[in-house]
Amino acid sequence: RRLHQRLGVTMTYVTHDQAEALTMSDRIAVFHRGKIEQLDTPEQLYEHPKNAFVARFIGENNRLDGRLEAVTDGRCTIRIAAGDTCIDGTLVEPVRNGGAVTVSLRPERVQVCAAGHTIGGHPGCRMAGLLREIIYLGDHVRARVALTGNEEFMVKRPISEAHTLPRIGAAVEVFWTPEHCRAFAQES
After folding, report:
1. Radius of gyration over alpha carbons of the chain, in Å?
2. Ordered strands of the 126-136 beta sheet
3. Blockwise average pLDDT, block size 10, the chain, 188 residues
4. pTM beyond 0.85
5. Closest CA to 55 of 153, 186, 151
6. Closest CA to 179 of 128, 125, 142, 143
7. Exposed (0-12), middle (13-18) or buried (19+): which is 52, by Cβ within 10 Å?
């Protein structure tokens, strides 16, 4: 990257390594079946994927399938397919009411706390589950939460928050803000 910046020339780099693409690039084209799905900056690709494929392909995310219940000013309500839970999020691409959607939540954009102890937050942006595992990774921890419809829901928190996590086996709530819960038309 430093060489590229020093030389000031255009370079094209083809890779399947996402970490390399995100760190080495000013712009990234995500291809799928010979078509560009999104051409954008690394930050925009990661934070604002344009469709379910890009969200699934770039970085790690939790996925939940459901049906679109309502849309108001880009915010939407989704009825999660497994169970009878409704959550709020941001609709990224046009979907008709009742249409199938996939919700994407990045693990680092989700918080977890003991059930009934959610501090603040949007009421439509939470789900109940059980804390199944805490994985220590030095600078952060990963908490695996079993939700209805997703036994492998991951939450990534900085190490400074590790001591605040409930014990394994505890009833918990995961919560987020609506702008980080992105709803896409389900991939066919």
Report:
1. 18
2. 111-114, 171-175, 126-136, 140-147, 150-158
3. 81 86 91 96 95 93 95 92 89 94 95 82 86 96 93 95 93 93 92
4. yes
5. 186
6. 125
7. buried
